[in-house]
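I'll show an entry:

:::
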Amino acid sequence: MTEAKIETLQYRFDGPEHLPVLILGPSLGTTWHMWDRQVPELAEQWRVLRFDLPGHGGAPAYPAGAVRDLADRLLATLDALGVQRFGYAGCALGGAVGIELALRHPERLASLVLIAASPRFGSADEFRQRGVVVRTNGLDPIARAAPDRWFTAGFAAAQPAITEWAVQMVRTTDPGCYIAACEALAAFDVRSELAGIGVPTLVLVGSEDQVTGPAEARTLVAGIPDARLAVVPGASHLVPVEQPAAVTDLLVHHFSTAWQPAFDSTTGQVAIPAAAVPGPGPGQPGLVPAQQAPQAPQFAQPQQSGPIAEIAPAAVAPPGLGGRADPYDTGIKVRREVLGDAHVDRELARADEFSADFQEFQTRYAWGEIWNRPGLDRRTRSCVTLTALVAGGHLEELADHTRAALRNGLTPAEIREVLLQAAVYCGVPAADRAFKVAQQVVREETTPQE
């Protein structure tokens, strides 16, 4: 039996080879250049490794639809380099990778910093909707909106070169890889697992972050034992870019004072020391050569405000369900992934003593059994479902499943073809009504939110 090959990541090293390794993980839509201002000082004490997400910064476009997949690819890259133990700092999606490493591979991690991160990023509906917009319109609408999400208004106005760099960075990302990363964030939810993180952790957030702000940061601190919180004033989501000196100071202090020894007396685990293998010189990419990508502009150091650090008490998160997977548990997960959290929440909220059994029936058998069968993928099941709903004249359900089809990866053009096919076999009047319903849904779902 041949093992599946795990793709590696595009990376670069900075700093002397003999120093301990510190990894910096990027946010969705960015490249390793988001860390340019931190590297010179960090490289004095660590050998800094930065990596690009798939399809970002000219990296090979091998989509990764789960955070665990990204963590596995990073570990495969490190294994090829002989790096066994390392510190890790990640921003947003890069922070989710850090959480995954701390939960699944704690023996590899010496210390952790989570920046603009969350145990669950917004709602699954939000990220699947973003994927629908990109699939239909490309990345330009997302790119144009990036500065508003990433920076405070004052910074964006004062630093037009960085603002334009951010737009171009998103615009040159591979759309398929961006959509897959949205799916990864939609499925990421470790709220019940935070108590299992045992490495020294600093949670860092910009005070003005409207994407994953101080509230999400405090959720992490409350769930991770002995985690510390640092709030950086005057910064939004991409705090390493907006307040580089403050972030650098916090990283240096944390990694200098909270580097967990390789031997853990509570588990008896001993980390394997890093192998002495030759690597590329400082500033040179390795494994996967970097392609042309937007370069971070040179800019004046913005005015810095000192970070505010505070200690928050840890709280034990509720345990997971455990035990054998129940069709209902699988069904509610699949139902939410296909129809969206908002729809499922509405349906479950309407249930009462009379209809609760029917809701359970749908979740357990339609979604836990049929929609979860491996014989057809979800795109194909959406095609079949749309046709059946047209034939039955079920227009309300047709609207819900048109939204689901877009989430499952069908394009508006493919949905149009399904309805044209249905017109031949289900009748023109039925298809006429279906086109009106689907047209409205497609317009609503694929129009970028300003």
Q: What stands out?
A: Residues 114 and 251 are 10 Å apart (CA to CA). Confidence is low (pLDDT under 50) at residues 270-293, 299-306, 308-324. The first helix runs from residue 39 to 42. The longest strand covers residues 109-115.
